Amino acid sequence: MLNSINPATGETIATHEELTAAEIEAKLARAAETFDAWRTTPVAGRAALLERIAEAFEAGKDRLARMASEEMGKTFKSAIAEVEKCAAGFRHYAQEGPAMLAVRRFDLGGGKAAEGHWLPLGPVLAVMPWNFPYWQVVRFAAPTILAGNVGLLKHASSVQGCAALIEEMIVAAGAPAGLFQNLAITSSKVEALIDDPRIAAVTLTGSEGAGMAVAEAAGRNLKKVVLELGGSDPFIVMPSADLDLAARTAVAARIQNTGQSCICAKRMIVHADIYDAFMERFAAGMKAVKAGDPFAEDSDMGPLSSEAQRRTVLDQLDMAKAKGARLLFGGEALPGKGAYMSAGVLVDVPLDDAFAHEEIFGPVAMVFKVADLDAAIACANDVPFGLGSSIWTTDRAEQDRFVRDIEAGMVAVNQMLASAPPAPFGGVKRSGHGRELSAHGLHEFMNLKTVML
């Protein structure tokens, strides 16, 4: 049984029966059968379906957003924004995707040439997390459908209502049966799915542990895998930065989705010359953050996704304090119902302690003071992760150094990092490998077949 529990109240709002072995087999068989037909569907027909799915998401956005707020606690206004972004993602691949699949020509010399044809691989299994229950799925689903592949979704157990709605929207848009199917199963069933020869490739967004398990199973089966794992993104502020804008953005970047985003700014790395001035602004902003009812217009953030997730963050803070770090304020469980906690700031984290490498998946920022640009880069890179980063400087030479030397898949210059359908998304080091979104995300699960002419 898979339970949906409202983290704002602690109440169980729905239960979902886990699929039986026979039901899983039926869905796999249907996926394989549908792929045989869908792979030969003209690209224009696939793109037209994506356009209709975008329209379905727009028409159902209030219903979709309400489900996300109730199942994982994000504010209703941010859930609406997420659904609108999903519609934009489907529409991006509908409009721009066909050109990404154009035949490539290669001059071989001597009057000879070759062509590169983009062809689908087969059913793609996606293992997805709860924090962006729609957008994370659309990042795989939109390019999968356009590519001529079919999708099987193993979503987080806690957001099965969202998972079912995604399938409902795609089916309502006129997708053939079996093009996109939700698998209501626990993680224990994933390995057997990867072992199944009908699954052509796997994509996962989640924790390091989950990524290692999926990568091991995919490697054993010699199947392509894309991994988007954790992040402990640096937010670096240098003396030439606009401190007011940097501080406001730092608050937004830390508390987005109640701090439960892989690309949240988690470590504020601030030059000593402007540390005090930045901290005055940043602390004031963090203290003003209001945690409250996800459906209240004045709530800046809702509860954490579950009581277990809140307990994890509180335990991390206890560990940090035991190592000598200081919690300036906040980072406390709020009284009453729900997995609420206050936004907080943690300082004096020992750089030589393993805790400085941890990802806090909640609304608490770690702040580090550094002496110069080299120290900022060293601090930014001194973690096992390399997903995103944000740098704040108007000095072009400093910008060039950061872009070149920060070990991350993405760098935002004087702005908050965010994903966007036209731009590649992904990381390095223990943040995973492969890319989502853009043409790169579309091509990840395709065969570039060379044709000698």
TrEMBL record:
Keywords: NADP, Oxidoreductase
Gene3D superfamilies: Aldehyde Dehydrogenase, Chain A, domain 1, Aldehyde Dehydrogenase, Chain A, domain 2
Source taxon at top rank: Bacteria
Pfam families the record matches: Aldedh
InterPro entries on file: Ald_DH/histidinol_DH (IPR016161), Ald_DH_C (IPR016163), Ald_DH_N (IPR016162), Aldehyde_DH_dom (IPR015590), ALDH_GabD1-like (IPR044148), GABD/Sad-like (IPR047110)
GO molecular function, one term: aldehyde dehydrogenase [NAD(P)+] activity
SUPFAM superfamilies documented for this protein: ALDH-like
Domain (Aldehyde dehydrogenase): residue spans on this chain: 3-451
Family statement: Belongs to the aldehyde dehydrogenase family.
Protein's recorded name: NAD-dependent succinate-semialdehyde dehydrogenase
Source species: Sphingomonas gilva
Record lineage: Bacteria, Pseudomonadati, Pseudomonadota, Alphaproteobacteria, Sphingomonadales
